[in-house]
């Protein structure tokens, strides 16, 4: 059996690029099993050479319009492409929008913002946060027996280089080696000043052998300011990477991570990195709390609310606590096995449900 899957994806500097990354990896798996894929939403400026192989069509949307207008756009494209399966990686899919998809008889998977729940009626409701539980969402399910909830890190979508780490020999970080490289990264979009604070508070203050490894996306409006700040520091205190070609290798070479609560948290976990969290937005608070509960990771609060002294104390104390870092790293790797993409696609297509 084969067919076409349509992806509706929301991506921008403000919401980040994690939605597009998830769509790409699900499309990659779909192509491997012989399905066509159509992407609706992201601008052409985000198109990469790999997308020629991942998506049979790329349809950008300059102006979304109302929920009714966008749902009509999705339905029209489904009719044109013969798609009956849809992935909604867009947190704006409100109840009226969902009702139109349901009336059209589509089978769809919906990623959602746990900080702003409303009534849901998809076939598959997805959130990889370690915080979420099905029982908490029963009041929000229009028809609970029809909606399958796929919650937790086992449904995290990872890029191939990270997924390939599953089952690999234990990361060097698990044995609690000395911290020499601290990853500071907050996704591919606007870091909202989180990196600037980390540079101000941590650079040169964690020991002469510690380097801050700063990573930013090209779409980050803070990028030029960050580059200037790093350039002014003494050699060895920090290095700056923009869209590094091998993020997996870069992260595995680090010993501790200061990050937000988005996609990178799953990548850090599978790399065996102990984590300190500063959330970029309210929808990252629950995932950060989940990581804290399950791995002992440190959640300091949302960007703009974390005091400089609090940030310094958290990172410096963790650097000094070998046993704690070792435990955090091991527990993180236990939660992420790299098979989330396959699980989501097979659930959407109703294939091999019990084999993953």
Q: What's the end-to-end separation, in Å?
A: 19 Å
Output the strand order for the largest sheet.
Answer: 3-2-1-4-5-6-7
Write the element-wise H/E pattern from the N-terminal end onward: EHEHEHEHEEHEHEHEHEHEHEHEHHH
CATH top level assignment of the largest domain = Alpha Beta
CATH topology of the largest domain: Rossmann fold
Q: What's the helix count? A: 14
Overall domain count: 2
**Structural class label:** alpha/beta
- Integer-rounded radius of gyration: 20 Å
Share of β-strand residues: 15-25%
* Oligomeric state, counting identical vs distinct chains: single chain
Could you list the spans in which at least 5 consecutive residues all have pLDDT below 50?
none
Major sheet attributes: 7 strands, parallel
Count of β-strands: 13
Second rung of CATH, namely the architecture of the largest domain = 3-Layer(aba) Sandwich
């Amino acid at each position: 059996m084969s067919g076409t899957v349509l992806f509706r994806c929301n991506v921008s500097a403000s919401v980040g690029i994690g939605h597009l990354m998830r769509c790409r990896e699900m499309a990659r798996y779909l192509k491997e099993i012989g399905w066509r894929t159509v992407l609706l939403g992201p601008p052409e400026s985000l198109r990469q050479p790999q997308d020629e192989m991942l998506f049979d069509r790329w349809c950008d949307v300059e102006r979304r319009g109302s929920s009714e207008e966008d749902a009509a756009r999705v339905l029209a494209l489904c009719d044109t492409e013969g798609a009956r399966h849809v992935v909604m990686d867009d947190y704006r899919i409100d109840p009226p929008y969902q009702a139109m998809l349901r009336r059209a008889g589509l089978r769809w998977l919906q990623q959602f913002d746990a900080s702003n729940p409303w009534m849901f009626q998809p076939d598959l409701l997805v959130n990889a946060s370690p915080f979420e539980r099905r029982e908490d969402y029963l009041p929000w399910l229009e028809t609970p027996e029809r909606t399958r909830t796929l919650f937790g890190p086992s449904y995290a979508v990872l890029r191939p280089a990270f997924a390939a780490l599953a089952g690999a020999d234990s990361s060097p970080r698990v044995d609690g080696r000395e911290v020499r490289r601290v990853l500071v990264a907050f996704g591919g979009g606007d870091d909202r000043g989180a990196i600037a604070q980390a540079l101000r508070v941590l650079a040169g203050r964690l020991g002469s052998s510690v380097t801050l490894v700063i990573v930013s996306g090209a779409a980050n409006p803070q990028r030029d300011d960050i580059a200037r700040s790093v350039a002014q520091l003494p050699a060895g205190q920090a290095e700056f990477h923009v869209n590094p070609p091998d993020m997996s290798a870069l992260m595995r070479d680090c010993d501790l991570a200061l990050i937000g609560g988005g996609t990178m948290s799953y990548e850090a976990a599978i790399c065996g990195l102990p984590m300190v969290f500063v959330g970029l937005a309210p929808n990252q608070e629950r995932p950060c709390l989940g990581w804290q509960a399950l791995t002992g990771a440190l959640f300091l609060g949302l960007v703009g609310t974390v005091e400089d002294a609090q940030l310094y104390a958290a990172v410096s104390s963790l650097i000094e606590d070998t046993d704690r870092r070792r435990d955090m790293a091991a527990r993180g790797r236990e939660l992420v096995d790299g098979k989330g993409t396959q699980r989501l696609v097979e659930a959407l297509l109703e294939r091999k449900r019990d084999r993953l």
